[in-house]
Specification:
Blueprint lengths: L30 H17 L4 H15 L3 H17 L5 H23 L7 H22 L7 H21 L1 H5 L20 H17 L3 H19 L2 E3 L4 E3 L5 H10 L2 H8 L3 H15 L10 H13 L4 H10 L11
Antiparallel strand pairs: 1-2
Length: 339
């Protein structure tokens, strides 16, 4: 009697071992998620920056790494979901929920890696920290189409997150700087005021005087003084149009702007949560830099929302100290109640 292997019409080959396929990193990716990844591949990456070398990172390098790093994949999907909201989808609440879901999954899946940072995983973790920073800024924009709620506390929370992310950079600075994402890590910033136009130097001089005058308590003086110095370096590296009296941030110098949030002292962050006046004044000046990125969907509205909120928190007595930042973002000088 012929065996199954030798029967001419048999379709069963018992000599072939049974295959056991293990679920891969994308096992929790749905068809809807593939749609988000499609959006990312054709549009989102292009909207994250306007420097060709940086766009290459978002277009090719990060997605390639995300194939083997699930937390990166979920991070990209979270960004794509928020980007879709910015494009004017009808069901924004649905995509907001999708973004939050993927962000939560990304955080959960990155936990073990974050507990064991090494020269092998620091690059992927650094990319994830950049994704998380963009997500954290974009989320309030997506939640509130007109005016975000409590932007001061939201930016303070963002600073806490970015300070945590900066530990990844500091622990493996040389590895990251010499790696594929090195262009995102810069340290060659100007630190003196020599090339700064007189008008901008005068603004910083007045601000420094205000810090000294209003911070009577020594702890406040330390927190705000350190924050002022970091803010000063940001402005030194910006471009100031003396005729238009406007600030612009060169796309290649944005790293110094983000360094303010990543390096401000925890004491200063506490002062922001407490609505301490001088800390709010410094933040209002930083909001001018955020406003320079108003054309980016993930940063849209931050500058105006912060200054309106700060104006309402401080009241009319502090109106003169807000005159310059308000003018820079196109608001009329004077008290603007928070809405």
């Amino acid at each position: 009697m012929p065996t199954p292997q030798s029967s001419p019409g048999s379709v069963v080959d018992q000599s072939v071992p049974e295959l056991h396929v293990s679920p891969g990193p994308a096992q929790d990716i749905t068809l809807e998620d593939l749609g988000l990844m499609h959006l990312y591949s054709i549009s989102t990456w292009h909207s994250l920056d306007d420097v060709p070398e940086v766009r290459e990172i978002w277009q090719e390098l990060v997605p390639q790494e995300a194939v083997s790093q699930p937390y990166l994949m979920h991070g990209l999907l979270a960004m794509a979901a928020l980007h879709k909201i910015s494009l004017g989808v009808v069901d924004s609440a649905h995509y907001l929920a999708l973004a939050m879901k993927h962000h939560s999954l990304a955080l959960a899946k990155s936990k073990l890696e974050l507990e064991n940072i090494s020269e092998h995983n620091c690059h992927a973790l650094f990319a994830f920290s950049a994704i998380t920073a963009i997500y954290t800024l974009a989320l309030p924009v997506s939640q509130n189409a007109v005016m975000m709620e409590d932007p001061v506390k939201k930016i303070a929370s963002t600073a806490i997150m970015m300070r945590g992310s900066s530990t990844i950079v500091q622990s493996h600075l040389d590895d990251i700087r010499n790696g594929k994402y090195g262009i995102l890590v810069r340290s060659d910033f100007h630190s003196d005021n020599l090339s700064m136009p007189r008008q901008m130097a005068a603004v910083l001089s007045d601000l420094k005087t205000q810090v000294r005058l209003h911070d009577k308590d020594q702890s406040n003086l330390t927190g705000c003084s350190l924050a002022f110095e970091r803010l000063r370096i940001c402005f030194v590296n910006m471009h100031f149009d003396p005729e238009a009296h406007t600030i612009s941030v060169d796309s290649r110098d944005r790293a110094v702007m983000w360094s303010f949030l990543a390096t401000v002292d925890t004491e200063f962050i506490s002062l922001l949560f407490a609505n301490e006046p001088m800390a709010l004044i410094l933040l209002a000046h930083y909001a001018v830099l955020l406003h320079s990125l108003n054309g980016m969907w993930w940063c849209r509205g931050w500058g105006i929302s912060l200054i309106r909120s700060i104006s309402g928190l401080l009241g009319k007595d502090w109106e003169p100290t807000l005159r310059w930042p308000m003018k820079q973002i196109g608001l009329e000088a004077g008290y603007v109640p928070a809405v």
